Amino acid sequence: MDKNKEFVNEEKTWWQNSYKRQSISSEQSYRGSPERPQGIRHYYREMIIRPIRSIIKNSQWVDIGAGNSYSIVDLVNPDKFNYFYYATDISIEGLKLGRARTGRTPIISEAASPPFVKKGVDIVSCFGILHHIPDWEQALCKMIDLLKPGGYLLLFEAITKPRILSRWRHQSYTAKSDSPHEGDIISEKLIEILHMYCNIEVLDYSGSPLRLGFSGS
Questions:
Q1: Is 94 helix (H, G, I), strand (E, B) or coil?
Q2: How many CB atoms lie within 10 A of CB 120?
Q3: pTM as predicted
């Protein structure tokens, strides 16, 4: 079997089992808001969503690795802000949970091969997904290719800080429950790629573990 295909299949199995342990009722009861983000993920995703919230009406938004779509529904609900939301993921179970929250039909798709035309969407979001992809650099470039001129890429990602984060992540008390492919994202390489194609408008390295929040056009 192709190494990348095996990688994806292992990730798919892990995420399927992870989402099966959740229930639709528990997902629907989870509520954060822009004013009161729930937890670190909400807090930093709100930081990068906030600059574009007022301009997203009628936009085409593709959410790569959307899973249960909880951040989107809680922070920038498509019904409230009147934009077209397309959730993609490899996990059918995750997308079922997301559909229960958004009321929209999701798309089963690998993050590295989103089924959209180039330069066809206004916003692409990718929240904590790149470090689960074997060739994340190529996948990132494909995501950027989807954007219309002046579009926005929203990233929230765990990054590697030599001798600190990589050791912490692989020896943390949650390591046993992590997916089988918790890869390393080197911030310098990520920023290099983004600078080639985007203007970086929001960049934040704070958080624990170290996270990078980004929006650009």
A1: helix
A2: 13
A3: 0.82
How far, in Å, CA of 101 to CA of 27, rounded? 8
Q: What single-letter DSSP state applies at residue 129?
A: -
Between strands 121-127 and 60-64, the pairing is parallel
Work out whether the CA dihedral 163, 8, 109, 17 comes out positive or negative.
negative
Domain range 3-216, CATH class: alpha beta
Q: Position 16: which residue type?
A: Q
Among 50, 95, 43, residue whose Cα is nearest residue 69: 95
Token pair listed for 97: 């949970």
Where exactly are the structural domains of the chain?
Answer: 3-216
Q: How far is CA 178 from CA 5, 18, 62, 97, 164, in A?
A: 19, 10, 25, 20, 18
Give residue-wise pLDDT tens across range 175-212: 555 666 666 788 888 889 998 988 888 877 665 444 45
Mean pLDDT within 3-15: 73
Q: Strand (E) positions, 90-205?
A: 107-108, 121-127, 147-158, 200-204
